[in-house]
Amino acid sequence: MQRTVTDRYLPPDREAFVAAEPPTGRLIVIAPTRAACETIELALRLRIPTILEKQHGQEIRELAAAGKGFGIVAGTGTGKTLSIRPIAETILGTGVLKTGVVNREREATPETPSWNVIVVTTGIARRWFQDGDILPSDTLVVDEIHQTSAELELCLALGKRVGCRFIWLSATVDPTFYARYLNAAAVLETSAFDPSKAADVKIVRKDPRTFLDDRFLQAVVKERRGVGMFLPTRAGVEEAAELVGDRFPRINSAFYHGGEPIRVIRPFLEGEEKKPYFLAMTAAGQSALNVQGLDTVVIDDTRFSNVIERGKNVLTRVHLGANEILQMAGRVHGRVAGGRVFILSDRDIHFSSLRPTAPEFQLAGDSERVAMTCADLGVAADQLELPVPLDRVAYRKAVTLLERRGIIENGRLSRYGKSVEAMPVDRPWAELLVNADDELIPYLAVMSSIESLHRMTREERDLSGVIVPGSDNLTAYNLYAEAYAHCGYIGEVYGLPRHLFDESIEGWAEQRGVLVKAIEDAALATASIYRALGMELPTKMVNARDHIYRKFAELLAQYMPFDLVINEQTADGTEARVSKTSVAGSWGAIAGDLRYFADRSGIPRAAIEGTQIPIELIYRYATRGKVEVVYDARRKHGPLVLKRSLDYFGFELESELETVEEFPPELATEARHVLAEALARNEARHFAVKKNREAIEDIREAYKRSGGETKRLGMPELTALYEQQLAHVSSMNEFQSARLGVDVDSFIPVKVREKLDRLPDQVTIRDRDVEIDYDVEERDGERRGVARLRLPEKVARTLTAAEIPDLDRPVRFVVLRGQRGAVRADTLEDLQERLAQPWSPDEVEETQDDRSMLSHAESEVRRIAGEFRQHRRGGDHRHGARHGSRGGPRPGGRGRGGSKEGGRARGPGRSSDPRRRRRGR
């Protein structure tokens, strides 16, 4: 039985909330974090003279009074957050601001309708939009708009859909995009930069550890410097702080990252820490923290960014952008006399030439969030004016997944989907919480509140006595339960019950190697889950043992809302290793979060952390697939078979094949269609395949030469043609003897053929014959013929527009690069720009029909390039060979034998067998 879920972050009485809307509308302030909410709430009570007020105070009030949207781009220390108060007073026409905050720890209350200024986080704002609580008369103030996230970008699109007015605040960023996208009447820019305090900036080709040598640290002590070092990882900041503290005890050394509570560096923020000091920070401190006495900044020119690659968030190591460097250096540059900035980089950076750039958006990698939001609103994704183009392939896959799971029905959230959406956790955990019994709720509430065991613990950790073998999730729960048992109690925060921890939590966490902030965040999230379910927070947390592991594994096996890996392969055959920090084994089934990262060569890899599921549970909840008719070209005798499979969430656990000679009456139509498809793909063992090949190629070439005026003969058309001729076939014997033909004259009239034959096959460029590939482009619903010049790469790199021949149709370009793939472009400028890149672009997703219409030369190059990319990525050949002997479950629809392809990808004259290489020498 599904649970009833209440969204505690929505106004309890929506009608009362809407009815209380003041004539001016409310001011809805959208903040990036809970901490930012508190800062804004404080700023709304203060009147402090600021640089921004001095330079633009009158303009801000005039724009606010005129009902116009506008932006403020202001450096740290200028007072942009404090400007929200005069904006609110001007818009609301009153100095009496009734302010309230709704975030993860402060839910909506019956007093919420009386507020005229409401501060919410991005996730809460998105929920309010979906519920219709934000009205066109409201003004949206977006603080720190440069801190992009999928939730924020959805809020921007939803605000535009409602018709709200936007006022936005940002640190260092190029405001051009926001000004256009949010219809800003003006953008006010200001900074606290003092030219007389410009910092001494140096680019140093050293890594952070090498840079922190005795010479630098001795200078820090001698000059009594306050040093802030920005590093990309939490391990890096901890190591740097430890290194400095061990070698130079006279330097007050500390670190801060997202896993630490802000109180650990409170002395640095309040000016109590004496110089010399050294504070290592991740990017969490680049714009949000004002460290008192800071006069030296060291910047590691490295960050880890989520790059969207074919719908996957791939964590990739890249250089810092101009915005990040300017923000980090801006802590001292132009603000502190005698300031120094060191940028540790392997590239040449001209700091004085750096200018703010446009923001990097995150929404493209969260298609499932977009799909659920659109379904809740009852709109299509293309009806939202998103700030970044949506990955439509990934979006369609997300919708299909949610429909299969019963969350979306007929384009809207189902009743089940609404319960899942109302839970304050990610969709997979929400599904488990909605379906679990009371015994599992404490465990699920905590596990869903912890990002991962890896991110909960340090590299040096002690898990003795808490490990649940095979489950990272339950091990993480046990850590929380032990922390609560040793250091916790039930208390209240903002009038809401929560697990709280006394000062002894610091010592316990140090001993275990656990991040205190992870425990505190889990306590906050757990409390919100219990309130959503209408249950009382437990006063006792019992450690998870075998009984709970079995119940949790069975719940997972029954619903399987997570990513699933079996024998280190996903359902689509991607290799996915178990994370190094996981307590789960490498083999068998593992359910959890699949994360993608780029290795040192830039190749995407997948890793998983989660809970192992016994194989007997997998088989218990597997389902019998419907009987399929399949044509297997590898079977010389009896290639047409009936396939009965046992499937489990995309995996084919086992299958039975039965050779078909006489077509079963109920499957005869399907059998003829399968045979027709096999013929169209040139896979069927039938004399017509060879006999018709030339005619088919002539018809397809004529279609391309005519610019689409003759009949098309792609895969669908050819399949339909063969299927029509097989209409009376009811057995394989009849199929083998059937006369199947392709009549060229029915597709290409003789006069048209003669005209098309007169078109040139080649042109001469620089005394070289260049092949012409005719093609048909379909864009914006229009079809037109083009001529694609197949250029040698050496010629293409230096070709000029004057050397391009005039033809009877638009000219396009292609360069075939063998194992590096094909480079296509519409213009010569675009072609030469792409050729300058180190690698050819990966092929876009193509249908079988798209591939069938390619020229023979390009088809061959794409085949070679595909095999080469597969080989570079560690390909399926190694994985398939390793698993082949185990006979375990395998991804559905995936063939074996990849080792042959892997060898072929090595190129001519090179063998994968070391013995053959020795004989060759």
Descriptive notes:
The chain has 921 residues and is of the alpha/beta class. Helix content is 37%, strand content 20%. It has 36 helices and 33 strands. The strands form 7 sheets. It has a 7-stranded parallel beta sheet with strand order 3-4-1-5-6-2-7, sandwiched between helices. A 6-stranded parallel beta sheet has the order 8-15-12-9-11-10, with helices on both faces. Helix 3 (51-65) packs parallel to helix 4 and helix 33 crosses helix 35 (898-904). The relative contact order is 0.06.
Quick synopsis:
By secondary structure, the chain is an alpha/beta fold. The strands form 7 sheets. It has a 7-stranded parallel sheet with strand order 3-4-1-5-6-2-7, with helices on both faces. The protein has a 6-stranded parallel sheet with strand order 8-15-12-9-11-10, with helices on both faces.
